[in-house]
Automatic annotation (TrEMBL):
This is Sugar phosphate permease. One of its GO terms (cellular component) is plasma membrane. The chain crosses the membrane at residues 20-42, 54-78, 85-104, 110-132, 144-167, 173-194, 249-270, 290-308, 320-351, 371-394, 406-425. The keyword Transport applies. It is a multi-pass membrane protein. GO terms for molecular function: transmembrane transporter activity. It comes from the Bacteria. The lineage of its organism: Bacteria, Bacillati, Bacillota, Clostridia, Eubacteriales. Pfam families: Sugar_tr (PF00083). It is found in: Cell membrane. Keywords: Membrane, Transmembrane, Transmembrane helix, Transport.
Amino acid sequence: MALAKTSVEDSPFTPFLMKLSVYSSGGPFLDGYILVIIGIALMQLGPELQLDTFWTGMIGAAALAGLFLGGAVFGYITDLVGRKLMYTIDLIAIIICSVLQMFVTTPGELFFLRFAIGIAVGADYPIATALLAEFAPRKYRGILLGGLIVMWYLGACTANLVGFAFANTPGGWRWMLGSAAIPALILVIGRWGTPESARWLVSKGRIDEARSVLKQVYGPNVDIENLGEVTSVQTRYRKLLEPEYLKRIIFVGGYWMAQVVPCFAIYTFGPAILGAFGLEKGNLAILGDGLISLFFLLGCIPALLLINSMGRRPMLNWSFLFMTLAMFILGFLPDASTMIIISAFALYAFFSGPPSVLDWVYPNELFPTEIRASAVGLCTAISRIGAALGTFLLPYSLKSFGIGPTMLICAVITLMGLILSLFMAPETKGMTLAEASSVSQIG
């Protein structure tokens, strides 16, 4: 049975919610930034550190592998100890490791630091998104959660600008990699004083504390019964393996992986990929990569505007269809004109926007409070381990098979995402958080 409207689920958009949305978006911004900046930095540091194909792939994939561990482990920890405690600790780790990257002298040192940064970013995903989902009313939840990916692409675009600025500076790669500490420091300051999630407090039986947070955020007339969740439930990781939740894990983790494997490969080695297509390398390749990043960002805008009217399921299906088409064009026509190549990349990038938006909406909506961060972390981990393997193997594929077959492999992966979406994607638009996460609501 659907829950009646509540003061929390139907509350207005407030300054608190705006602030929470802005600073929760810091993790995605940093993820996009650190992923793209390494692809540009590799153009300089590769010769300086004498990287071979193995170390190029390892360093390119290091942060993604760290994201796997960070998401899988710290999502569960966040469900155990709370969202507030972890909300700034992970950012401090990013600041320290980013600065240390400026002083590396060996490939192994850089790999270790990139891996550690990935762990911290992976930890931030379940922390920040769960916190935002649990405060956001249903009318704004899809837009706010989906809007986080806009910051991912904004981070990627910013990295292209920073990379372009330092591309011709001797040792500029050190400044590129160390620059991630600046937005991380701003986020630490901005996140200070954020309250704990009332839903999480209720799930742990801390009713008085939850009541205090609700009144602080929503007003003096709001109490526990307005929340829609009033039961204390123990956090058990194995609950994710129960049939209905396992099905949701397979769906979210699977389509997310199919989406990000080609996407992250393009981002990490964007200039090299454009060079393999015969487009000029150097600063112009960086600018071309930046143009593709802009289309990734632009694709998110219609998705955010339509997410409540069009719905989650049709948006995902149509997007995967056009993404698959674009990848096949690149695979079958590697010697096409510059206009066709850039247009195909732009088509893929633009229609990557809606699935990217749903990457943050689906996992937060489909799982209850006591395992929400664990589920987000696990789905993030599944997607990133696939992306890490794809990013590591991409230099080998380009070297062994060439650009056409490499793009065809990406096309097949994207096609698998389309098939998974067609058969498994649920619809959650208009539901409360409790309704969407209930096993009785969605088949």
